[in-house]
Amino acid sequence: MHRVQDKIALVTGAANGIGKAIAERLASEGARVFVCDVEDAAGVETVQGIRGRGGQAEYVHADVALQDDVAQAVATAAAQAGRIDVLCNNAAYLGKVHAVLDSTGEEWDKCIKIAMMGTHYFTKAVLPYMIAQQSGSIVNVVSIQALVGMMTSVAYTSTKAALLGYTLSAAYDYGPQNIRVNSLCPGPIRTRVSPPPGSPHHKWQCDNTMLGRTGEPEEVAWAALFLASDEASYITGATLPVDGGWTAK
Ligand SMILES: NC(=O)c1ccc[n+]([C@@H]2O[C@H](COP(=O)([O-])OP(=O)(O)OC[C@H]3O[C@@H](n4cnc5c(N)ncnc54)[C@H](O)[C@@H]3O)[C@@H](O)[C@H]2O)c1
Which of 68, 109, 146, 161 is the most exposed place for a label (fewest CB within 10 A)? Predict the structure, then answer.
């Protein structure tokens, strides 16, 4: 069954990790996916992988922190595809773990510009298309770090918490236009930024979940697919943890 057949989807930060898994899952369920990232070689590789499996994908270079890049990316997708059905705001700056006193201005700047303003620029750019269509699904990849206290970076956590508010506000404003906006909150997911298996940090992550393990990017992608699809037609403004039970423990 193709759960997002013929939908046009933009996924940011889709060259690696969770974004890549989301792009691959959406494509394998029938969507035409625009892979947006700044790591061009990895982004092209993601696209080639999707096409190699018979899916439809294009790579679009876009630094989410630059409004001109975002406008260009969305215009490219809309010009080629004629509509935009799904936006997944996944790109973020993942800083080091440290406390308030050690956080730098540069880190705050990057967290705000990439996760927060990147989400805003992309959302603002796709909304006119979704309003014209009277339909759309926006999935913001947040983090359980916006829901519970833990060792993290204060700039990262603060920006992610702000995204929960952004989701609610956008969901409220554009619900009447049949545009749904939801937050997905991954727990510890195995990507290139994760602590190595067997390390104390990895063990701490596993011990904090109910399932006793870290998650895979594909497990987040299934949840993103659901929120992107018409199966979630009455779900908006929601926060969905994909965290092995961490926030429920
Ligand atoms: N891995 C986890 O455990 C975890 C947990 C909770 C939330 N998350 C969230 O999931 C998302 C993806 O994280 P990941 O673990 O897959 O990381 P990752 O580093 O594997 O992937 C992030 C992608 O974003 C891209 N990116 C970074 N800055 C960008 C920019 N300015 N413009 C466009 N693209 C940019 C990177 O090039 C990369 O391809 C992030 O929003 C992160 O906060 C991850």
Answer: 68
